Amino acid sequence: MEFVAETIADLSPSLTLSITSQAKAMREEGIDVCSFGAGEPDFDTPQHIKAAAIEALQDGQTKYTAVAGVAALRKGIAKKLREDNHINYEPEQIVVNCGAKHSCFNAILACCDAGDEVIIPSPYWTSYPEMVRAVGAEPVFVETRQENDWKMTAEEFDNAMSGSTKMVIVNSPNNPTGAVYTKEELTAIGEVAASEDILILSDEIYEKITYDDTEHHSIGSLSDEIRNLTITINGFSKAYSMTGWRLGYTAAPQEIADAIDTIQSHSTSNPTTFAQYGAIAALAGEHSEIIDMVSEYDIRRQYMLNRIQAIGNVSTIEPKGAFYFLVNIEKTGIKSVNFAEKLLSRMQVATVPGIAFGHDQSIRLSYATSLPIIKEGLDRFEEFCKAH
Ligand SMILES: *Cc1c(COP(=O)(O)O)cnc(C)c1O
Question: How do residues 134-171 score in pLDDT, each as one tens digit?
């Protein structure tokens, strides 16, 4: 007898997490590793958010809440979505989840049956295809091009559709490419989805992290028709450096929100109670920390862009959001896992191989790390690239 279910046995563990832990282990042995592997901010959670959670804990907020989260938080999220994102959702349409990763998983589980197809632009965030497979549905990849800043066009989306298409995943700002879709691009994609009644899962976890005059747009805000097909997902991890708090949220058409509530009532129940009180403070507070954090990321981004472009046999786009560079290593002739392993063992530089994102001719460098580490790491990276 096979102990593990067939759908699950075929899944692979998160490669992004495994490389980071390998680098961590090396560092614990005293090896001087420069890590570009981080998938989380290197800043601490702002003090007022921590204080609110501590206060809640001391006030006895230590019991279950409603499955979908405390009313004040759902109200705060509805207000945020109305003001920042120009989408009107009732608090009843919002479910607070245990991280935006959990939000994505719940949404896919709530909407996709075995045999349904989910369109995923590639390179993609490593977890989407495995989530889709975990529920017995099928990921359908749209290969995007570096020349088009790794963005899926409406036409490419349209061409990937079949009679079984149930959902399309949009992630802007994007992990791993740093691409940010314009309003026009999102409108075109939304209109294609609307023409065939395809659900749109919009993962907006990096919305606060954009550069220059780049604006984030929520696809659900672009028309009522599009909003009625859109599941807007966001969370606290990236904007407020709250990865360990495990808090994300989903805003969706009522029947989908209800289905997610039901799933959650039989799985995790509510997200951690006192953490939710921290999140209320995060939304209510002033956002100067976010601005400071983004300007710090921007300094690193510009430094890295210049350095990477000067290397010669590798290339990249200028990321407009998030905190990653997807570096094209095609000219070195080395595949991504091999490249990342050699880079780690020979130069003590940790990266994530592009295969984790469906693109084997690239590696991902995160700049959620300090400038001195970035400088030293890029010196080593350059030396390695020039030798290949
Ligand atoms: C980090 C990340 C998430 C999830 O973050 P949580 O910590 O689960 O809230 C979701 N989507 C993308 C693209 C991410 O990079």
Answer: 999 999 999 999 999 999 999 999 999 999 999 999 99
* Ligand 1 atom closest to Cα of residue 322: 15
pLDDT in tens, 273-319: 999 999 999 999 988 999 999 999 999 999 999 999 999 999 999 99
Q: How far apart are CA 194 and CA 189, in angstroms?
A: 9
Q: Give me the chain's average pLDDT, please.
A: 96
Distance 100 CA to ligand 1 centre (A): 5
Check if 358 has its Cβ closer than 6 Å to any atom of ligand 1: no
- What is the maximal distance between C-alpha atoms in the chain? 60
Q: Which atom of ligand 1 lies nearest, measured to the CA of 171?
A: 13
What distances in angstroms separate CA 17 from CA 37, 127, 182, 336, 366, one per listed residue?
A: 9, 11, 30, 16, 13
CATH architecture of structural domain 62-284: 3-Layer(aba) Sandwich (3.40)
Say what the pTM is.
0.97
pLDDT score at 97: 98
Q: DSSP E strands: which ranges in 159-247? A: 165-171, 199-203, 230-235
Homologous superfamily (CATH) for 6-45+288-386: Aspartate Aminotransferase, domain 1 (3.90.1150.10)
Domain coordinates in residue numbering, the chain: 6-45+288-386, 62-284
Rounded-to-integer distance, Cα 288 and Cα 207, Å:
16
Which backbone phi and psi does 378 adopt, to 5 degrees? -75, -30
Between the CA of 45 and the centroid of ligand 1 the distance, in Å, is 16
Q: Report the separation in Å between the CA atom of 101 and the middle of ligand 1, taken as the mean of its atom positions.
A: 5
Give me ligand 1 centre to Cα 310, in Å: 31
**41 in contact with ligand 1, CB cutoff 6 A:** no
Q: Is the CB of 250 under 6 A from ligand 1?
A: no
Rounded Cα gap, residues 254 and 258, in angstroms: 6
Ligand 1 mutation pick, 14, 130, 170, 203, max ligand atoms within 8 A of CB:
203
Query: Rounded to whole angstroms, how far apart are CA atoms 331 and 186?
Result: 32
pLDDT tens-digit profile of 226-275? 999 999 999 999 999 999 999 999 999 999 999 999 999 999 999 999 99
- pLDDT > 90: percent of the chain: 91
Q: Could you tell me which residue, 324 or 5, shows the higher pLDDT?
A: 324
CB of 248 sitting under 6 A from ligand 1: yes
Q: For ligand 1, what atom is nearest to the CA of residue 235?
A: 9
